[in-house]
Design goal:
Number of helices: 6
Strand content: 25-35%
CATH topology: Rossmann fold
Distance between the termini: 14 Å
Largest sheet: 8 strands, mixed
Shape: globular
Low-confidence stretches: none
Number of strands: 13
Structural class: alpha/beta
Number of domains: 1
CATH superfamily: Class I glutamine amidotransferase (GATase) domain
Helix content: 25-40%
Oligomer: single chain
Mean pLDDT: 95
Order of helices and strands: EHEHEHHEHEEEEEEEEEH
Length: 210
């Protein structure tokens, strides 16, 4: 029974809604919480809502930090959602003393108001994405520029390698809304809360996991 997509439970995230959304697109998914399950799963989803430093601490307390790093270095498909995207980077302004998983070079920074205007933070609600078509990632198959997705966040990633950016969104400034690699997709928005187009992304991930 190791042919499942594991939704990693470290005490910070809407796990059941992610699991339910994956099941709705035909994926065999289940919530997992141990290092053994992380290693057994055919693919992994790292969701998350909350503070960067607290998430790092929780992952370490539960013995999941190193197994996730190992999974990221393997051939296992991996999906990061919201805080799960930010944790892939080296560090965050939110928690300067904490080090992230470090799979992607770069940092996570807070939204700042443009000169002469105020910017409501967190960035919350529906917003559009612009895709990086040159990346040609299968995880965004069926997703056109201008599609709406649901965001809730105060921080966003600054990848050191801009070519890894799969999609951008504008909120006060243009920011990285998703990154992608051959087997990795991670997004700042919540696909499980983003209607049909969000389910399309989860379906794309499920097919890649298969």
């Amino acid at each position: 029974m190791n042919r499942y997509i594991g939704v990693i439970d470290y005490g910070m995230g809407n796990l059941r809604s992610v699991e339910k959304a994956l099941l709705s697109v035909g994926a065999r998914a289940r919530v997992i919480s141990t290092a053994r399950e992380v290693r057994q799963a055919k693919a992994l989803v790292l969701p998350g809502v909350g503070a960067f430093g607290q998430a790092v601490d929780r992952l370490k307390e539960k013995g999941l930090f190193r197994p996730i790093q190992e999974a990221l270095q393997s051939e296992k498909p991996f999906l990061g959602i919201c805080l799960g995207l930010q944790l892939l980077f080296e560090k965050s302004e939110e928690s300067p003393r904490s080090r992230g998983l470090g799979f992607l070079k770069g940092s996570v920074v807070r939204f700042n108001s443009p000169r002469g205007r105020s910017l409501k933070v967190p960035h919350m609600g529906w917003n559009t994405i612009t895709t990086n078509r040159s990346l040609k990632t299968p995880f965004l198959s069926g997703i056109a520029d201008g599609e709406f997705f649901y965001f809730v966040h105060s921080f966003f990633p600054l990848p050191a390698d801009a070519s890894a950016t799969a999609a951008t969104t504008h909120y006060g400034r243009s920011f990285c809304a998703a990154v992608a690699g051959p087997r990795l997709f991670a997004c700042q928005f919540h696909p499980e809360k983003s209607g049909k187009k969000g389910l399309q992304i989860l379906s794309n991930f499920s097919r890649r996991a298969a």
